[in-house]
């Protein structure tokens, strides 16, 4: 894979070429050739950055959102709306306690709501279905407990 040269490398190559063409050229940091090489290197660095950005847009897995959606549209695909995470919460508490539907549970910075009623069993736990308050993958959790 091509490695983009740094500003300093580009400037050094320009100065090397200048010295090659004019052996007596002054390429010290205080020279006109050095200033000219720095200006050209800055422009070239910008072009390399733009080319790197273009390459990222070519491939769907590295493309920015706008270009990813364009890739999808060219293939007849469209972005789906985020769905709400759902699953089962294991809740612990006093046996025979009633859990109502609509109970709000906080896990980290996310909130979930129970979607059915449940009774805590003799073992001190109950499984109760719940959904996330907000859609999106960020609400997916592997396990959740309410004490």
TrEMBL record:
Pfam family, one: Baseplate_J
InterPro entries hit by this protein: Barrel_Baseplate_J-like (IPR006949), Phage_Baseplate_Assmbl_Protein (IPR052399)
Domain Baseplate protein J-like barrel: 88-143
Signal peptide annotation: none
Record's protein name: Baseplate J-like protein
Organism: Neisseria meningitidis
């Amino acid at each position: 894979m091509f490695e983009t040269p740094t500003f300093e490398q580009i400037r050094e190559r320009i100065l090397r070429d200048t010295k090659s063409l004019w052996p007596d050229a002054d390429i010290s940091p205080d020279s006109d050739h050095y200033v000219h090489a720095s200006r050209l290197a800055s422009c070239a660095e910008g072009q390399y950055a733009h080319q790197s950005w273009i390459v990222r847009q070519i491939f769907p897995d590295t493309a920015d959102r706008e270009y990813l959606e364009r890739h999808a549209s060219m293939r007849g695909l469209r972005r789906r709306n985020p769905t709400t995470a759902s699953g089962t919460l294991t809740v612990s508490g006093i046996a025979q306690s009633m859990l109502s539907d609509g109970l709000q549970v906080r896990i980290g910075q996310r909130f979930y709501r129970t979607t059915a009623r449940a009774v805590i069993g003799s073992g001190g736990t109950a499984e109760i279905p719940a959904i996330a308050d907000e859609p999106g993958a960020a609400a997916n959790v592997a396990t959740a407990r309410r004490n």
